[in-house]
Design a protein that fits this description.
The chain has 115 residues and is mainly alpha-helical. The protein has one domain. The protein contains 5 helices and 2 strands; from the N terminus they run αβαααβα. Strands 1-2 form a two-stranded antiparallel ribbon. α1 packs across α2 and α1 packs across α5. 24% of the residues are buried.
């Protein structure tokens, strides 16, 4: 149940960011694409991101953690490549979208868990 709530919250955040930014940060066709994007993002963050994080650990340490933002953007790029109906609009907007998705999803997921 907890996974389903987090998935729907993340899907709503992805769709909301795409809608509120009018496609400037991220382009999503419909809510079904956003749900699929949230599921793929969960899989990418569970399996691909730890491997890339370990490989890029020296760069992350040298950049004082700022390279983690690039890894987040890379996850969004992979997401857009895998999921039809989701497109990125550039490097800086993708980094901003990744920051917003992680921050807002974490906030709302924590709010729903404290019931």
């Amino acid at each position: 149940m907890n996974f389903v709530v987090r998935l729907l919250v993340t899907a709503a955040v992805i769709f909301g960011i795409a809608f509120l930014s009018a496609g400037w940060l991220l382009e999503v066709e419909d809510f079904a694409s956003a749900v699929l994007a949230a599921a793929v993002l969960a899989v990418l963050n569970a399996f691909v991101r730890p491997v890339l994080g370990l490989i890029s650990l020296p760069i992350t340490i040298l950049s004082l953690g700022l390279f983690a933002l690039v890894l987040n953007a890379l996850m969004i790029y992979l997401l857009a490549w895998i999921v039809p109906g989701v497109e990125t609009t550039g490097f800086i907007p993708t980094i901003l979208a990744a920051i917003l998705i992680s921050a807002v999803s974490s906030f709302f997921a924590d709010a729903f868990e404290k019931d």
